[in-house]
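Researcher: First entry.
Model:
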Amino acid sequence: MNGDNGNKPFNRPSWDEYFIEIAKVVSSRSTCLRRRYGAVIVKDNVIVSTGYNGAPRGSTNCVDRGNCKRKELNIPSGERYELCEAVHAEQNAIINGSPERMKDAAIYIAGFEEDNSPAEGKSCLLCRRMIRNAMIKEVIYLSKDGSIVRVEDVRELEGIKV
């Protein structure tokens, strides 16, 4: 969206671009050695909650410990989550948010690989269930190719006809 600032035009980001950028910044707090994710829950264009992936409060995280069990065992993405100590970004955002404010809200998710390239932001099965249970309606995520994907009903991520 273009605006006018005197004689100097400027580009104003869309709401999706704006909140994805915030999710990117939130991901910088991640304590995961493999991938850094950030999530932002938004309702009526107001931030309700944020979360990043990392060890539970009070636990030693992978960054401080200097190793990752899943990385050492060369476990592919999306497999053997039970070996990972981290709480996912979406889960932390939901835990930190007010249930009343999350109803019909949107969640924005951005992630990065070790080399800082975009990671696929589509939530895992457990996070999708938590998003549905929190009654969050929309999911907007940064895809691996760097594009923003909007899913207007979280049930669509699970192949449920809406």
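Researcher: Second entry.
Model:
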Amino acid sequence: MTATDPALTALSQGWCALSLLHGRIEARVERALQSGHDLSVREYSLLDVLSRQHDGDGGHLQMKQVADAVVLSQSATTRLVTRLEDRGLLERYLCPTDRRGIYTNVTPAGLTLLEQARPTNDSALRRALDEAAEDPELAPLVRAVEDLKAPVPGRPTPA
């Protein structure tokens, strides 16, 4: 393949469209969460991911898993956790079976803020997708996003 190969050009255009859709969505949601709840998209995502973990075997996420879920490096995730811990929204403690492991839990204040912010997040996401659906280049991507189903933990993902 060469740089002027039509397949490569189409792939590049598709990637650009996907990046554009992501940027528009993130900007819309960021503005709504910041103005309504003093939360960034990353802070909201971290609270959301951590609120879904549970006590018991396999219930807590390692920092690498958390970093992957919020699409940040481990060091950036640690800084984000520290920032939310300083605000009283998260707490850290040592793993009772492995003193090297550190768990992070959402505090009651963090859960309250997350529940208050969830409708804002969902509404901003819906508006961003509706606006993007009006753009002929983005409409197929919006349909694909709307058709996606989140995997259910413990249930095999269809091949």
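Model: Note on the second entry: The beta strands are 90-94, 102-106.
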